[in-house]
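Hey Z.,

So I finally got round to the adenosine-5'-triphosphate thing we talked about over coffee. Here's the setup:
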Amino acid sequence: MPILALNNVSKSFGNKIAVRDLSFSLQTGEIFGFLGGNGAGKTTSLRMILNIATPDSGKIEFFGKPIQPEHLHNISFLPEERGLYRNMTAIDTLVYFGRLKGLTRNDALQRAKSILNRFGLSAESQKKLTEFSKGMAQKVQIGIALINEPKLLILDEPFSGLDPINQTVLEDEILCAAQNGTTVLFSTHIMQHAERLSQRILILKQGETRFHGTVAEALRSVGNTVMLTTTANPTSIPGITRAECVSQDSSGWNRWAVTLGPEQSPSDLLLYCTQNALPLTAFEQPRPTLHDAFIHIAGNAASPVSKAA
Ligand SMILES: Nc1ncnc2c1ncn2[C@@H]1O[C@H](COP(=O)(O)OP(=O)(O)OP(=O)(O)O)[C@@H](O)[C@H]1O
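And the result:
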């Protein structure tokens, strides 16, 4: 049985459809990337999952049932809008939330110390949060989400505001939690995190699901792109759907990004180039990234074959 299942969930604000017919389910221990541009509907969806906002239609179930108060001990949420009791110390804050989530005082204290240590905050454990920087306070808030070792961890933009070292610490925490059986649902604008962490992703655009599948499937959707450095204009080569001159050289050797149609392979293109004596100094096939796939899926519609600038 899935830990969480959404079926055709929709929500509007006035005339604005924030989320339309959202459906997905999460299995134990998986890391699911919930992606979309600004205003795509990610936060609204996460708020509906947590019963903070009510869907207009559709069904959301935890362990096969509508959300119940007892589920809340097994779910943690890092909201996009962070807020803490600033007059408490870091350690007291973590222990307080650990106790609220049902831990004994001793367990809460041990876990709080371990979390502060992992996030490099042991020396600051007795300092009040008023003395903390934004990023340090965010690490405490992430610690609050982790302290009960939840079955489902929901993180809204967890990497924003963290420096690169702490982003890596958080990636490791997410991977470690998943290895221990926690299911992780996280939203992000930073595709590198989603590519490294997620088994499956969902991409929203203006409330609509544009993609739902594995990272490998998303990468395949970009299609084959080949980089050519040539003095010729490749726009008329048969089988290519798009050719964009990405840099020009005064000697006439221009670099082109060429997208191949579904029937065309890079080796077909290379054969065509050699058989037709196309002057070439470079022929590269870059691996697409999730960033490329995201732009392809959630960006503007692909433009037709474009000529050199
Ligand atoms: N309380 C609200 N009242 C009116 N409109 C809202 C409200 N909350 C969200 N919206 C609208 O719903 C849409 C989705 O917003 P949401 O905050 O879910 O997007 P998001 O994907 O989390 O965006 P971002 O990445 O910028 O945080 C937006 O058009 C937003 O203006």
